[in-house]
Design brief:
The complex is a heterodimer of chains A (about 230) and B (about 70). Chain A is α/β, with parallel strands linked by helices and about 230 residues long. Helices cover about 45% and strands about 20% of the residues of chain A. Chain B has about 70 residues and is mostly helical. Chain B is built from 3 helices and 2 strands. The longest helix of chain B has 21 residues. The chains are: A alpha/beta (about 230), B mainly alpha (about 70). Strand 9 of chain A pairs antiparallel with strand 1 of chain B, so a sheet runs across the interface.
């Protein structure tokens, strides 16, 4: 098994995501081949190059994300709706905000085998960073043990609930409430796990005719015109 | 107790709780970060943050309540 580990670090929040990715690499380094794209190397051109050179590798991204993009060291997207086809036939594990919402769905619609990530903004506190690290890394450790994605998701959510209970017992209510929110935002788009489904028939028609990128663009225009909260 | 009073009591409890946090404590929410003092200020001045915070306290307590003794 091979993994492209993309982990930039450019602000206070990403100091933590980088540290968590570092701990993950230490744990899995003897069980898989690591292709590191760290810090200044974690930019779009390098990620695209690595994805093309290693079509069988997983992509593991720890940094900021938005609904339709995941970001690199220079704060440009390393993957967005314009190059999402590079995720075809591979598995993607994310520790970033929001990207499972639109990018993850689009990736799955474009042939990505599994897209693990969060559909809301991810939160954490510094006084429980080891607990959050354990929760965020847990699913990947199960996956490299050979567990199916469905089991990885169910077991990770159960683990997160265990950690939440422990945080409550330790009197750390704020960390517990944030991890509860993170747990509920965790999704895995994969066959037999969760498959994206647009409720709105008009949205379904646009996706089937023009793809997710067109739907996302139309939603952005609608949100700007109507000053809607993004969805 | 009406909703407004319940919300006020959550905010007051949160402030007392946060006042006991060390100065290096931070809460990160996406790209934003807050010290304990900044959380208290946001609870007082930012209705969106306040709604998000209260909703999360209620969601956690409801979950624990529904799971039984914890």
């Amino acid at each position: 098994m091979k993994g492209i580990f993309a982990a930039p670090k450019f602000d206070e929040a990403t100091e933590y995501s980088y540290k968590w990715n570092e701990r993950l690499r230490e744990k899995v380094g003897n069980r898989m081949e690591i292709i590191p794209l760290l810090l200044a190397d974690a930019i779009r051109e390098n990620v695209e190059g690595a994805l093309k050179d290693h079509p069988d590798a997983l992509l593991i991204h720890y940094n900021h994300g938005s609904e339709d993009a995941i970001y690199g060291q220079d704060e440009r997207p390393v993957v967005d709706l314009t190059n999402v086809s590079l995720l075809k036939n591979r598995e993607v594990y994310n520790m970033n905000c929001l990207s499972a919402k639109t990018l993850g769905k689009a990736a799955y619609q474009n042939g990505c085998l599994a897209y693990w990530g969060y559909v809301e903004v991810v939160s954490f506190t510094t006084d429980a960073e080891q607990d959050f690290c354990e929760a965020f890394n847990y699913g990947f450790l199960l996956r490299i043990e050979g567990k199916a994605w469905k089991e990885c998701l169910e077991s990770t959510k159960a683990k997160m609930t265990e950690i939440i209970d422990d945080l409550v017992k330790r009197g750390n209510g704020i960390a517990a409430m944030l991890l509860r929110e993170d747990r509920d935002a965790l999704h895995c788009w994969a066959k037999d796990v969760e498959e994206p489904h647009e409720e709105c028939p008009f949205s379904r028609l646009i996706v089937s005719l023009l793809g997710y990128r067109a739907l996302s663009t139309l939603r952005k225009i609608r949100n700007r015109l109507l000053k809607h909260e993004p969805d | 107790m009406d909703d407004k009073k319940a919300e006020e009591s959550i905010i007051e409890a949160a402030k007392r709780y946060l006042n006991s946090h060390p100065p290096d404590f931070k809460l990160f929410r996406g790209r934003k970060s807050y010290t304990a003092q900044q959380i208290i200020e946001a609870l007082e001045k930012d209705p969106k943050f306040r709604d998000w915070f209260v909703k999360n306290v209620l969601s956690l307590s409801t979950e624990i309540f529904m799971r039984g003794k914890k």
